[in-house]
Amino acid sequence: MSPRKARADAVRNRAAVLAAADRLFTESPEGTAVSMDAIATAAGVGKGTLFRGFGDRSGLIRAVYEARTERLREAIATGPAPLGPGSPPRQRVRAVMAAVVRVKLENSPLMRVLESATSGDSGALVDTEPYRWVHAVLAETIAETSTSLDPSWTAHVLLSMVRADLLDHLTSDRRASEDRIVSDVDDVVERLLDR
């Protein structure tokens, strides 16, 4: 039996919801004030459409994030060096971490909402599909280096230093530039992989 093709109105509604949610999360400085009702109204759909299509608010936030980062994921999964799978391992870990920092800073309001939404529900950020995916890429690539550290643990350590709340603190309170943060993260990556 072949998979059911989505109805045209369902595809259209999903696109409208993602576009409305993306806009509202971007416009809201904290993002947390954006309600499912506001998203449904902005998208011109019923609230039930949101819950049927995304499960809950966290599911919708993850879908917006995944839509925004789809090109980056493709570059990491199948692209050329330095992000792609054929790159030298150390270079690839450094490139992936730099890309993660940049995408989190570019999507700061959404990242704060995503990370706070996941810490408030039954799961944790480490249990989300985007986190598990980038963790797996990093751990697999770290395993190809000569470090004596556990690859899975090292990948968690690297990802913990680029949490949205920490990046916000560094850019707003400490006035660190994106380039400075990327450089500091790169330095930590090098030091860890030298172990």
Automatic annotation (TrEMBL):
Residues 35-54 bind DNA. One of its GO terms (molecular function) is DNA-binding transcription factor activity. It comes from the Bacteria. The keyword Transcription does not apply. Gene3D superfamilies: Tetracycline Repressor, domain 2. Keywords: DNA-binding. It holds the Pfam family TetR_N. InterPro entries: Homeodomain-like_sf (IPR009057), HTH-type_TetR-like_transc_reg (IPR050109), HTH_TetR (IPR001647), Tet_transcr_reg_TetR-rel_C_sf (IPR036271). Residues 11-72 form the HTH tetR-type domain. PANTHER family: HTH-TYPE TRANSCRIPTIONAL REGULATOR RUTR, POSSIBLE TRANSCRIPTIONAL REGULATORY PROTEIN (PROBABLY TETR-FAMILY). This is TetR family transcriptional regulator. It comes from Nocardiopsis ansamitocini.
